[in-house]
Amino acid sequence: MRKFTSFVCGTGAGLAAYYLQRLRDPQTAVQNSWTNSDKPVDPWALWDSNWDCREPRALVRPLRNSQPEEENRYNAELEKAKAKKPRHIILVRHGEYLDAGDSDATHHLTERGRKQAEFTGKRLLELGIKWDKVVASTMVRAQETSDIILKQIDYDKEKVVNCAFLREGAPIPPQPPVGHWKPEASQFLRDGTRIEAAFRRYFHRAYPDQEKENYTLIVGHGNVIRYFVCRALQFPAEGWLRISINHASITWLTISPSGNVSIKYLGDSGFMPASLLTNRIPRDAKNVV
């Protein structure tokens, strides 16, 4: 049996190496037949199963030999390192706010923004989720949105984690570039490092001792949420600005025990009246409802 297993493993490794070599070789690579592109499939577009550095095989000491005792040790440690249940991460963008003044302290929700947050809280309550953790950006508009939602979902405000890493910013230079928004390179370096750190803090598969499905609510910002979506789905992170999400909308990502990630909602705001649907910041009181 061990010889057969070794043969299968060796054959599988050989086929994988052969397949990757064919992908890298433009003369033999498989073409994207469903497009007009003459470029081969990019081997780096393949899913990285160890994206969160929690792939069990990466955590367990490799087999030292083919002895039964060593194989038993390896299999036992591998099983112990495996996640058993999925994690659900629900991201909510803050409600509409008035961009008045140069300080975050003056950026309060508009009346429409407060109504948006209330509708979102009611929607989350209707989903019947029992929250394991609620995290909110420390910016005023996110804090106010979080407070309104908490009243609807009956979650203790004292248990909320307030995280400065989730503050709004410029995660990475977008592709294609846009003419109306050009932060300095230093801002991308400063904000991008922080936002990436937030992604690594909150996005990972479940711990092996997690015995039930886990639900985390994160109240944050548009740029951060869009970047998180690209990173979690292993899409090119530079494409984050191509996504538009409404104020107080819901984005739901699920991380399976295997590390695979799927998206259930992206910027869902269909539970709000059409009069409350906004995604841009009003610059003066004339545009505020």
Automatic annotation (TrEMBL):
Substrate binds at R141. Its EC number is 3.1.3.16. It is an enzyme of class 3 (hydrolase). One of its GO terms (molecular function) is protein serine/threonine phosphatase activity. One of its GO terms (biological process) is positive regulation of mitochondrial fission. SUPFAM superfamilies: Phosphoglycerate mutase-like (SSF53254). The keyword ATP-binding does not apply. Gene3D superfamilies: Phosphoglycerate mutase-like. SMART domains: PGAM. One of its GO terms (cellular component) is mitochondrial outer membrane. PANTHER family: PHOSPHOGLYCERATE MUTASE-RELATED, SERINE_THREONINE-PROTEIN PHOSPHATASE PGAM5, MITOCHONDRIAL. Interacts with Pk92B/ASK1. Displays phosphatase activity for serine/threonine residues, and dephosphorylates and activates Pk92B kinase. Has apparently no phosphoglycerate mutase activity. Belongs to the phosphoglycerate mutase family. BPG-dependent PGAM subfamily. This is Serine/threonine-protein phosphatase PGAM5, mitochondrial. It comes from Drosophila rhopaloa (Fruit fly). The lineage of its organism: Eukaryota, Metazoa, Ecdysozoa, Arthropoda, Hexapoda.
